[in-house]
User: Fold these one by one.
Assistant:
Number 1:
Amino acid sequence: MTPEPYFFLLIFIGVAFVFPIAPLVLAWLWRHFFQPAKPGAAKNATYECGVESLGEAQVQFQSQFYLYAIIFLIFDVESIFLIPFAVAFTGLPIGAFVAILVFLLLLFEGLVWAWSKGCLNWAK
Amino acid sequence: MEQKIDEGLRSELQKQGIWVTSMQELYNWGRRSSIWPLQFGLACCAIEMIATAASRYDLARFGGEVFRPSPRQADLMIVAGTVTKKMAPQIVRLYNQMPDPKYVISMGACAISGGPFKQGYNVLKGIDRYIPVDVYIPGCPPRPEALLHAFMDLQRKIDGQKLTGAGKADHLKKTQASEFPVPEFGEHDLEPPANPQIFHPPEIEGA
């Protein structure tokens, strides 16, 4: 009699079940016979680096926040451009210097514009 | 109940390639060879603790290099440094959140008694006021060798813990508390200033 060619799949399925279940059963037996479970208020509480957790995890930010986020993003990118400018500052020709000043002026104008439009006031 | 195999027979069997052990030995061997500390440092002692874990002193030789960032997976709390009164409730809460069995090493003069800051208004005068400490390491700060020594002491302690019988380990007893009350900020000090159930300072005779 030749063995069924797919019989090993059955063995694999068996192993796949036993492998994760065996440690769980062992742990359950261990708890039952040796080490009683000791749940508690602090032990079951949410882990928050030792601080008591406050409120819910699903906090919503107000949609007005996107204006701040956009302005922050622009000036964040600006700082990336400013670092090579600062590093190469002493060796810059006058044209490059003026170019970066124009770039800064544009952003500054943008800030003044956003400010005057009231974007920095928190809309209620 | 206690059945001990004859040591002579045991070594004779070992020579023939048969290893005889007991459940308790196996259990303790596994636990002492994989003590995972909780990853947190409080002051300069933490630098020595980091050095102990790094390659030069290599805590991994003792199975303790797996510093866990969550108390859920930690077995050992190394209180490495000055415990301020602001920090004490957090430490007790972290200890409470660790699963049993759990151990505490009180590292350095500050964690033992407040150390050089003992007279200060904001420093806890020893973490053993709130949680039970297994091993104390004196020093300011203790060298990594001292921490390794404490680690080996703890391993010896774990090795000696009984699995069954009257003298079995505390974490196996049903009645033994696994959590300790977290102190609160009072008007002048932490409330209570110490947990009277576990804090038994030595008394000076004649005082």
Number 2:
Amino acid sequence: MLPFLKWGHVMRAILSVLGAAILYCAIGSSSLQAQERSAVRQGFVLPPQSGKTILVLRPSVRVAEQSTGGLAEPRAEWTDQARAHIGAALVELQRQLGNTVIAAPEAYGEDARTVAEHLALFGAVSDAVVQYQFFVGNRLPTKKRDNKAGQFDWSLGPDVAKLPGAEQADYALFLHTDDQFGSTGRKMLQIVGAIAGVGFTSGVHKGSAGLVDLKTGDLLWLNADFQMGGDVREADGAMKRVRQLLEDFPGSAIPRDAPSAETPSGGKP
Amino acid sequence: MMPGLVRAILAVLVAALLSPAAMAHKLREQGVAVTIADSPLTVTPGRDWNRLDGNIGKRTENWTLDGGQLNDLTFFAGIEPGKPLVRERSKKREPLPRFGASTLLVEIPELFEATYRSAKQIADFRVTDVQPIRFLGQEGVMFAFEYVDGDELTRKGEAQAAIVGGRLYMISFDAPRLHYFARTVEDYRKIVASARLP
């Protein structure tokens, strides 16, 4: 077969074909990984001092250690530290949101369960938006038409009107963070994997901030990312995280965070 | 030597060319009958759905409207005796319960619960209702359930199952209890009502 080809020609042909294939895969995967970080519902605007009131809910914060096998093992002391630091950072930054802000009242019993369930739902909706809308190459066929028309149509449902404090506000601000810090074993696995050419991630640093219409439950604005910066177990890191989460908030005066070298493992600078 | 090399090159090229398309989620159009997981099972959706890329088992398919977190429709299309409902991560360390030749219809909710508890590593799962029904023209079982997943969100679900020719056919649906379950459960029931075996 193919007697006119010499071995050198064959090798060159193989290398060029493989090179083309690798390039094609690289282009394909980069288009799949092209990622957006924030979106606004079509037609929604919130100018500064608009007369609207924003209900700020207590952030949902989870911090865990990632085992060598990749499982999340909750760490209560880290979660407590992060909750305190993120709460303090939010109190400081919410003054710059550009509109009237009220803190959600302390909730007890059934009210507390309703708040917790809505925060968990917000986390799931944010994850779905990042996975199926912000990752452009992973969009769902039924939503592609909406995406082409610039629609951002996601909701928590009208039960948000039952949240404590909802009757005194127009919108609710939800914050959700989920961090897993790689254990020593996981970091070692990452290094060994890198040498062997197998990709193991160490650490998860997800965060999302969203503004929700308190009458309809519609998501009006979302800023979310699966790889955020800021070590939430420390005051400076938590401030950096909250600043990143609120940096595109409509009508706010919060400046973009200055880049810094300090990042948690696996997070963005 | 040469034919082997040519085949290898072609295989690399085909894989590279097909991979982005193969990775995409597929549209399942309203009113168009489709077969599930290369099995004899067909359904005709009453609205457009997305079939998610990848599967959790050889004889399964996952459909969604907004993402698996928010509405998860799963088809189990002819699970053979001796097999688990979904693929095992590790047969040795994390074995899953198996559908067996002697498994009875009334034991299906228990099998489903044990599979969810192990595969999703969840502690909080309750079967809230079990009813005899007709499914795929046979005696079947419907059951409702509620569970809390690792993301601390309470989800409600419903499933209908029948054993046909010794194999298990089941369609399940679950979604967050808040807003999402009630919004889509009727669309799921329409798919169940459209399910056919030759």
